[in-house]
Amino acid sequence: MKFNLGNTASHFFLLPMVSIHFEIEKIATGAGAIREQLADLDLRIIIDSSLVEWKELGEEGPTGNEWEDRKIGRRKDFLVRRMELAKHFIRTNIEPEWMVFVSITSSSSRVETHHSDRWG
């Protein structure tokens, strides 16, 4: 079910609550969403597309505009760092989603016992 909201946000309040709830559920936020996006990355595609862009930027040569040349240089440096990081992940068998911390819960009594044994 699609609604035309027009130019004003006031129409949003006229939508049925079921539709609003459904739309909100489709939006992922927080660390879980970032972790999910990182899990979907294909590192080899990132390396290949970065290399293609780096080569294209190198073929053009200096533009004569100092600002534009610096911008291109920064982009090329970024692409090199991206490729190096992706290669490192592949070489070391590290999954990108591991960069997002996942907390592990434990019972509070075990934590309190551990702390009291350690620090008195």
Account of the 3D structure:
The chain is mostly helical. 63% of the residues lie in helices and 0% in strands. It contains 5 helices and no strands. The longest helix is centred in the middle third of the chain and has 27 residues, at 66-92. It is elongated. The model is unreliable at 1-22 (pLDDT under 50).
Descriptive key words:
single chain; disordered N terminus; mainly alpha
Question: What is the gist of this entry?
Answer:
By secondary structure, the chain is mostly helical. It has helices spanning 17-25, 30-39, 43-60, 66-92, 108-119.
Spell out the helices and strands N to C. HHHHH
Strand % is: under 5%
In round numbers, the mean pLDDT is 75
Question: What Rg is obtained from the alpha carbons, in whole angstroms?
Answer: 24 Å
First-residue to last-residue Cα separation: 61 Å
How would the global form be characterised? Answer: elongated
Count, helices: 5
The secondary structure category is: mainly alpha
Instruction: Indicate the low-confidence ranges by residue numbers.
Output: 1-22
Portion of residues in helices? 55-70%
Compute the number of strand runs.
Answer: 0
